[in-house]
Amino acid sequence: MTREQPNRSTGVLPPLSPDFLTDLFRDPLDPGYAAAAAVRGGRPVPRWRRVGARLLTLASLMLIGMMLAVSYLQVVRDAPARTQLRDELAGQIEQREGTVRALEGRLEDLRDEVARVRERELAAPEARRLRDLEAAVGLARVDGPGVVVEVADGPQQLDPATGEPLVETRIQDYDLRLVANTMWSLGAEAVAVNDRRLTSTSTIRNASGAVLVNRVPVGPPYRVTAIGPDDLAEKFLASRAARYLEALSGRYGISYQVRSEDHLTLPAAVSADLRHATPADSPTSGGDH
User: Would you say the pTM of this structure is higher than 0.85?
Assistant: First the structure.
């Protein structure tokens, strides 16, 4: 089809014929523009190149899939070994804990035997004074009425920013120190945390998230046991420590309970390694200094 020239007098193009519109939709790119695009590198990609790119992409995906499959199989294959190792370690820990408990019981029996022999050999006033001193410093088992303060962690909460568990919902070492020190200040004669007797050299510390009492890890629920006057529970409930625990309970869900007991038994503390010094002989007037 030939293009009609515009009217020279009016400059208006004549109406387009239907055949021209059909050609325009069928071949919208002018042959001259097509030739220019081919010169600039815009020619269609050959079929073999498109097929090669698709095959390369498919091969890459298959390689990644094989790597993931091998990694998954490696994890699955090693899972029984890790589970077995974890079970063995847990069994060893339970065995060692049982051994420690048995040795602690044996230690209590030997202490009782030593006390009986000592009382038999010593005079009554001296034996009674020695018992009182041992009870005061925590080296003897004591019995009597007292108070038990039991505290436990609150529901686990996650930090919205990091996604890590909030430590505020867990009982910390300083919480237990506050309760124990409050018991001492209210007149308690003996205090223990989870059956670990506290003395003047005791420590309550935190190590990697675990609470240590006298360098021994203890877990929740934590029981602070104190032997003291009859009104020890009432005094504790009116103390700052009780208000602090109440605030933790309302904010972080930490639970606590205070109850009086007519009879409590606190074990003796582990004997510390005592060191002593003796004065040197006084030098004589004519001796060397």
Answer: no
